[in-house]
Amino acid sequence: MSELTRAEIQSDLQEIFRRIFNNEDLVLSDSTTSAEIPGWDSLQQIKIILACEKKLNIRLRARDINALENMGEMIDHLIAAVNKASRK
Amino acid sequence: MLFTDPVFIFAFLPISLVLFHLARRYRSGKFAIWFLLVASAFFYGYWSVKYLALLLSQILINYLFAQQLGRSQSKRLLWLAIGVNLLLLGYFKYRNFFLENLSILTGWQFHLAALFVPLGISFHTFQQITYLTDVADGEEDVPPLPQYILFVMFFPQLIAGPIVLHREMGRQLASLAENRLLHGNSFGPGFTVFCFGLFKKVCLADNLANFVDTTFQWPLHLQFLEAWFAAVGYALQLYFDFSGYSDMAVGLGLMFGFLLPFNFNTPFAATSMTEYWKRWHITMTRFFTMYCYSPMALAAHRVVDQRNITGVRMFALCIAAPTVITFLASGLWHGAGWTFIVFGLVNGVGLLINHAWREAKMPRLPGVVAWFLTMITILVTLVYFRSESLAQAHAILKSMFLPGQIALPLWADGIASRVGLPVTFFEVFQAANFTAHYVCLLLLFAPLAILLPNPAMQPNIVRPSVTTALVMAPMLWLTLGWLGEPRTFLYFQF
Amino acid sequence: MSEWSRFFLIRLPLAVFTVGLVVQGTAALLAGVTLHRHNVDDLANAVMHDGHRYSVVLLGDSVTHNVAHEYRIGDVDEVADLTTHAFAGLPSSLFLLKRYLESGHRPQHVVLAASRGVYVDPMYKPMFNYYVGSVFKLPFEREFLRTHYSGYMNYGWRPAALSMTTNLGEPLLSLIRRPGNDIWRAPETPSLNPTLEGFPNDVSTYDQEAVNNRVKAPAVVRPEVKAILREFCELSHRYGFSLHIIWPPIEPHLQAAWKLTGKMQSITEQLAEIFKSNQTAVSIDDVVDQQEYPNFDRDLIHIRGRGWEQRYANQLTAYIHEFKKGKQQMAFAN
């Protein structure tokens, strides 16, 4: 699997968020936090993780995602997970 | 020693602050770490030297586990380590509850020795479990032993949280070892936040306690109005008590140059159960979300996804089961009793209804209605939390929701006849004076609970202005005036 | 100097000092306000201003107060109801009587109808300042409390800002409530033959902890109470009134338990000895000698039922009238 660019992962993540939160106008930036997204809770977070796993063909650990502060950190984490998966 | 003891405020705190900063200036960061360790040990040992020894032993055992986990990252070893910690917690906190219920089930008789729960055991056990898991995940390194001990024993967060993740403290401690404080210029905001927390505890929570405790002395004999006053009064008391304590913890941390996580974000402004638990005891919610709910929910979602399960079965597996199990566990964490378990259960059911409403894409309720329903649910849970038995809780809830009659006290017969209500004997509201005081307190404190910000959330926005001084001055006078009467923190018994 | 240094060295101390000064000044302005937070405040003021010539003063705790507050004791304008409750205790009874006498009133009889607990139990500290210390501040009262109730409150000077609710809040609220300058007069005349409620006497509904505490309570008259009773005797000599002790109704099970241990008799004997040593003839009567009261509240202290309350009111009236006839022991006619 080729290494995805940061922009591609950000775009994928945004698409996932828009679908899960049913909000086509949602725009994510590196500094966006969970507090800024109405309806975000631990259940939606699980759906996001599952969607990321399917889209990016990776396996994530829930508590790693729980501990992230903002979208920037989440994107970094996804990139690391994708890279780790592609090295296997 | 408690944060509200005059001995702590006027002796321990100033002395340890001065000596800590002197240690940093004239010796080294490592020496300062040792000093903080000794001070924290003194703080804990002031209550019981025996349990200080227990705490240190638990910390050392966990450190040895962490070293092994750092080398092997073995899941089996992690489960063993978690098991040992939970067993310790179970022995000290839950053994009598376990034996009592076993006795009911089996008819066997057990000798129940008096239970003495080591201070803060629920908090520092969970804190260490998070650390061991992080080490097993490869997320955290094993620091030098003094730093690890201080991570657990740092006295601002030792007795009643916040439950700190190692990633939040590890860098700060490592920096201190190099004699750099990452939040070294925060004494001013720290002091302000500490005073604010102290005010909430001493002036707000403890004043309410006088009335609330009286009401809960008569759980089987409360009239409709008394029951509602008990529930609302207790909710406010618990909030000011615990959020005040948490503010003090953050403030103290900052005074020593450490940033600790905050625990409250005006929870009584929440308009849903989900939102409430994102605002109340945030670090505990974080723990149960990270280490209990999320792993279960993610595993369930994966199974459901693979097997294409939908509808009610999907809801039951992915949402209901993880939510209820997590809240039962968190209820039990609060106390060894059926009232705490039911407290957790009612919270879990409340959250389920919240989730079901959203999953079914039902229309959003108006804010006031949503807030009202949320608060009613919270009040019900807190009646269980405060009551000494399920029977008492049910008696109070019956008075609240199925009162039979709504009456006024005998002394209010003038008002009663005008509004067309009967009068009857009130156990607690026997005197107009007492009732008037209670009413005034609730009317004054309820808006404060919703409107007062939590400075611990953003301590560095506190400015050293004239306004801050004028707000703090009356708070300091009021706090000093009421400081003489010691009361324990409600979360003290955890 | 950094901003925070300036804050801690200048702004905050100045703000604290300013607020303290403002509160002190406001408290001084409000110091002249007559407090009307509760009935003890009301009485402390009324006894000095009420112009009625009552021939009898009735003192006592809430067992008697709950009845006297509703039902008139004695004839119209005969009995001044200066009853309070246990949180105000015997100090309030003494000080109210003394104020009443020093305001020119000359009752012929003073009846003290307080439960035995008031003589043998310590007072409740958290409420002491509210019902006693902040009410009674005349020189004799202050000195007496400082001498005999030294552990109950702080008698030294404290900045007003340390007690803002007491120094500001309570006077301000007292301005709203205006009960007048007369001693409270009960609104109802007790019926001579009230219907006596037939509540079942179910001890299992009582608060068991209260039962045990009451039974185990010591029966030694406290030293500060002895000092109060000495003052009563002194007042009796100075102002020429007769002093009478009446034991209010007591719950039958508690009475039985106390009789078994000799407490009932012991307390009466201790009081008799105190009065004898102060050379004061005092009658001591017990209402339950004439009438058993079967129905009490869960705390075993207050009688329950309007019929029973009226019966007690009638008993007090009968006793008072017998005292006036010069009889120390009397029979209660049904």
What is shown here, in short?
Chain A is mostly helical. Chain A has helices spanning 6-20, 42-56, 62-66, 71-87. The radius of gyration of chain B is 24 Å and the shape is globular.
Radius of gyration of chain A: 12 Å
Helix content of chain B: over 70%
**Low-pLDDT segments, ≥5 res of chain B:** 486-494
Oligomer: heterotrimer
User: End-to-end span of chain A in angstroms?
Assistant: 10 Å
Structural class of chain A: mainly alpha
Biggest sheet descriptor of chain B: 2 strands, parallel
- Biggest beta-sheet profile of chain A: none
Structural class of chain B: mainly alpha
Global shape of chain A: globular
Low-confidence stretches of chain A: none
Beta-strand percent range of chain A: under 5%
* Largest interface (C-beta under 8 Å): B-C, 24 and 24 residues
Report the β-strand fraction of chain B as a percent range: under 5%
CA-based shape of chain B:
globular
Radius of gyration of chain B: 24 Å
Strand order of the largest sheet of chain B: 1-2
Helical segment tally of chain B?
A: 18
Q: What is the ordering of alpha helices and beta strands of chain A?
A: HHHH
Number of domains of chain B: 2
Distance between the termini of chain B: 15 Å
Notes on the protein architecture:
The complex is a heterotrimer of chains A (88), B (494) and C (334). Chain A is mainly alpha-helical and 88 residues long. Helix content of chain A is 59%, strand content 0%. Chain A is globular and about 35 Å long. Chain B is globular, with a radius of gyration of 24 Å. Chain B has 2 domains: 6-182, no CATH class; 189-493, no CATH class. Chain C is of the alpha/beta class and 334 residues long. Chain C has one domain: SGNH hydrolase (Rossmann fold). Chain C has a 5-stranded parallel β-sheet with strand order 2-1-3-4-5, with helices on both faces. Classes of the chains: A mainly alpha (88), B mainly alpha (494), C alpha/beta (334). Chains in contact: A-B, B-C.
Summary keywords:
heterotrimer, A: 88 residues, mainly alpha, 4 helices, globular, B: 494 residues, 2 domains, two-stranded parallel ribbon, 18 helices, 1% strand, disordered C terminus
